[in-house]
């Protein structure tokens, strides 16, 4: 696929890195020559110094032959303009990064689509949805719903209280015959393992599980976790993520939002009718105690600074908060933050890149998610008529070793996959895969 990416910022660079390993023909446009030189020295792609809103520069990028044009600069106006120009110049499909909710209103979205923008990606909105998901399913490190919750994927840390610690997959299967779930991956230290029958669960492992919603609480008990209801929460940072989260959750729980900027705090107090807005520094222990941090069930740190978010979550955890969520935009900090017990983490560029990535695949992909603390990706694909995946039971199909099928959605029913499962055309299949297996998985589903 020929792909033109406009913008060498965090999202564009990460997306280019992901796609460069998948045999795509990639061109990256940005006005920052030094930034492009650095990227060019590490990735197999073509870079062009220029403006994506310039017709001349778009023509130089040969956008008329692009299968996909992705505009992810920091400027919403530039992204919209360049996407419209790219479409008029011949790009088959366009995606624009936005930061304005009004563009997602159905009539506005349809209008812009009629002009030439096929898809929109709003990283802050994706991040807010992620936070809301984490708070609705306490006890998990990561959580993702498929087909409106018919199947769930979630990550749970194995604690010393876990009854499955030091047991193999086969032994756990014998213990849990009546529980319909499947462990699809294990994150151990810096390594992601696609488990087979002989693999053991160890203390500290982050285990990714696919199950039906009603089984989740029982699976959590196996790993030494207990579900608890979040009634009180504190948000640090009046960013767009913080605001969207507060708007969604303010009616459902007792919510406080801390913002260090006084003028911004006053504006937020008017806008957020269902949350108490406090002007103050969330790193101030006395302020946190004064605002009742020790009584909070959850603490969410979404300032623009990764270090502040990590530190604040560690402080909140030390003061007794069960559930902490940090926005960590520096990818290099993610494994470190996980290892020191920060809790759940969100990263806007990973979320945005995952959302866009599915449009670069040949198979029919419904959803795609790059997991924050793992090298792997979870994809929801639709099985096609006469595709290899429908040609026999899963145990008889030569499925890649570095990928796993967790379950399928057939009509209104979620089904956990086993070796005897026969996938049918039209099934929505949840696949957990390492980057090395993505192309092989695509071929099996085409």
UniProtKB/TrEMBL annotation:
Residues 1-121, 230-351 form the RCK N-terminal domain. The keyword NAD applies. InterPro entries: K_uptake_TrkA, NAD(P)-bd_dom_sf, RCK_C, RCK_C_sf, RCK_N, Trk_Ktr_HKT_K-transport. PANTHER family: POTASSIUM CHANNEL PROTEIN 2-RELATED-RELATED, TRK SYSTEM POTASSIUM UPTAKE PROTEIN TRKA. It comes from Paralabilibaculum antarcticum. This is Trk system potassium uptake protein TrkA. The keyword Ion transport applies. Residues 141-225, 363-446 form the RCK C-terminal domain. Keywords: Ion transport, NAD, Potassium, Potassium transport, Transport.
């Amino acid at each position: 696929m020929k792909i033109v990416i406009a913008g060498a910022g965090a999202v564009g660079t990460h997306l280019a890195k992901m796609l460069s390993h998948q045999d795509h023909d990639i061109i990256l446009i940005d006005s920052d020559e030094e930034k492009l030189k650095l990227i060019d020295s590490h990735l197999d792609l073509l870079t062009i110094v220029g403006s994506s809103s310039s017709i001349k520069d778009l023509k130089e990028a040969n956008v008329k032959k692009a299968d996909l044009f992705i505009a992810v600069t920091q400027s919403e106006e530039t992204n919209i303009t360049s996407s419209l120009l790219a479409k008029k110049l011949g790009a088959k499909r366009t995606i624009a990064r936005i930061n304005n909710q009004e563009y997602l209103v159905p009539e506005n979205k349809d209008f812009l689509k009629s002009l030439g923008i096929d898809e929109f990606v709003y990283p802050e909105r994706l991040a807010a949805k992620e936070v809301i998901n984490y708070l609705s399913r306490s006890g998990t490190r990561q959580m993702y719903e498929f087909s409106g919750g018919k199947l769930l994927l979630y990550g749970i840390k194995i604690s010393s209280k876990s009854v499955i610690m030091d047991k193999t997959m086969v032994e756990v299967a014998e213990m849990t015959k009546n529980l319909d779930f499947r462990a699809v991956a294990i994150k151990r230290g810096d390594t992601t393992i696609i488990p087979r029958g002989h693999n053991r669960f160890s203390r500290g492992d982050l285990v990714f599980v696919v199950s039906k919603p009603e089984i989740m609480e029982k699976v959590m008990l196996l790993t030494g976790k207990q579900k608890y209801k979040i009634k009180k929460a504190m948000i640090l940072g009046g960013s767009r993520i913080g605001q969207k989260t507060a708007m969604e959750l303010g009616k459902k729980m007792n919510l406080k939002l801390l913002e260090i900027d006084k003028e911004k705090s006053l504006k937020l107090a008017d806008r957020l009718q269902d949350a108490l807005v406090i002007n103050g520094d969330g790193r101030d222990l006395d302020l946190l105690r004064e605002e009742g941090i020790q009584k909070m069930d959850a603490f969410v740190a979404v300032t623009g600074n990764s270090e502040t978010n990590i530190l604040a979550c560690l402080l909140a955890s030390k003061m007794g908060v069960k559930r902490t969520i940090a926005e960590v935009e520096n990818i290099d900090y993610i494994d470190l933050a996980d290892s020191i017990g920060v809790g759940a983490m969100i990263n806007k560029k990973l979320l945005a890149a995952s959302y866009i990535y599915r449009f670069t695949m040949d198979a029919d992909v419904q959803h795609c998610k790059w997991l924050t603390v793992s090298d792997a990706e979870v994809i929801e694909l639709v099985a096609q008529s006469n595709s290899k995946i429908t040609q026999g039971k899963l145990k008889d199909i030569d499925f890649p070793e570095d990928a796993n099928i967790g379950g399928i959605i057939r009509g209104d029913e979620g089904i956990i996959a086993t070796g005897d499962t026969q996938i049918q055309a039209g099934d929505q299949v949840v696949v957990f895969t390492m980057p090395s297996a993505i192309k092989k998985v695509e071929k099996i589903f085409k």
